[in-house]
Write a structure and sequence with these properties.
single chain; 376 residues; alpha/beta; Rossmann fold; Aminopeptidase; 3 domains; seven-stranded mixed sheet; six-stranded parallel sheet; 13 strands; 19% strand
Length: 376
């Protein structure tokens, strides 16, 4: 049962992020360079992801003003740019619907309270939010997103279990934070984040206006569930065996792959094994194990034929990447085969880069190996 909806602020309630990107770009232009969308998007939903001063210096080869000076230049322009911004589509309807349904609402944002509260007052919606969980400087004693702290503090203040709350997010940093806190997530990407992969979210919509509260509750109740299990547990073992059978058929009973390791490799501080359940059936899996001190290896990503075409392999990969980040890995590697074009397409479209074949696959002409560098 849904008891609370926790909104992000910037990009979800008001689109303050596009103007921020434009203003930072104006500042970079005045220094003779450009801030790219891919660079800026890393800063959305978090704090300190970009050292703007260092980036200008790196791009121009000339010392830039420090970040305090740059932000002092930016803030008046930002204030003016957002002064008259309307609520994002669907926000007012959602707030009314949650009120009517007696579902509690709150905000969890990496922005400061002084930035958020005037906008809530201007739109006369402050009374809707029972709690504001904000990040108000480095001395607050907890971390901004993608750490789960803002959400865990919010849920504690509301006295609600994570399973009874949904977060509404527009950024990958925010989505990861909410998932780390154990919550469901409705992702509403903006024009800045629409190109990103939100497979880890439970529901993805282009606007809150296209999904009202009641349809959202129904969608969340039918979303695939991802659970951690043992590699030798019955469901995981059955899926891994099914994968091996399919590979054997594609390679004429001689698949270029091994047993995939032992159960101990996929748990504890070294790895995870995940199983995805849809409508009561276990239909997909994937594993992560240690390759070396800084590198994890992805294994056994598989979706049963009847469940394909629903983005489940992408969801498995997204959850494995999150697990790898939580375990402290700096990069991931994997091996696939040249007779698996759908797998190759998945990896290459998800940012994986082809590398030289490694380990037992070094001399395998059928193998294709990839790596993914991880952000914190």
């Amino acid at each position: 049962m849904l008891e609370a909806v926790v909104f992000d602020f910037d990009g979800v309630i008001i689109d303050t992020e596009w103007s921020a990107f434009e203003i930072w770009n104006q500042l970079f232009a005045e220094h003779g360079t450009e801030l790219t969308l891919d660079e800026f998007v890393r800063s959305i939903g978090t704090r300190g992801a970009i050292d703007f001063s260092a980036l200008i210096t790196e791009k121009t080869g000339r010392p830039a003003p420090n970040n305090r000076a740059l932000r002092a230049w930016k803030q008046p322009l930002q204030d003016a740019a957002v002064a008259d911004l309307a609520l994002m589509p669907g926000v007012a309807s959602w707030l009314q619907a949650t009120s009517d349904a007696q579902i509690r609402t709150a905000i969890a944002s990496s922005s400061e309270r002084w930035w958020i509260e005037p906008h809530l007052e201007r739109h006369a919606i402050a009374h809707h939010f029972e709690h504001l969980s904000t990040w108000d400087g480095p001395d607050v004693g907890f971390s901004p997103k993608p750490a789960p702290d803002l959400y865990t503090r919010c849920l504690a203040a509301l006295g609600i279990h994570p399973s009874a709350a949904v977060a509404i997010e527009d950024s990958i940093n925010g989505t990861v934070a909410a998932k780390r806190a154990g919550m469901s997530v409705i992702a509403v990407p903006t024009r800045l984040t629409a190109h990103l992969d939100f497979a880890i979210a439970d529901v993805v919509v282009s606007s809150l206006a296209e999904l009202d509260l009641h349809r959202a509750i129904a969608a969340l109740s039918n979303t695939p569930t991802v659970r951690i299990t043992d590699y030798d547990a019955p469901a995981a073992a059955a899926l891994a065996l099914a994968q091996q059978a399919e590979l054997a058929a594609r390679w004429d009973d001689d698949p270029p792959c091994g047993a995939g390791g032992h159960a101990d490799e996929y748990r504890g501080v070294d790895g995870r094994f995940l199983v995805v359940n849809v409508d009561g059936a276990d239909v997909a899996c994937g594993g992560l194990r240690r390759h070396d001190v800084t590198t994890g290896e992805v294994k056994r990503v598989y979706v049963t034929p009847s469940a394909r075409g629903r983005g489940l392999s992408r969801k498995v990969m997204a959850h494995l990447v999150l697990a790898a980040r939580d375990l402290g890995y700096e990069r991931l590697i994997l091996e696939t085969g040249d007779r698996l074009p759908e797998a190759i397409s998945l990896y290459e479209s998800s940012g994986w880069t082809r590398i030289a074949n490694f380990g037992e696959y070094a001399d395998s002409p059928d193998s294709r190996c990839y790596e993914l560098r991880l952000l914190a």
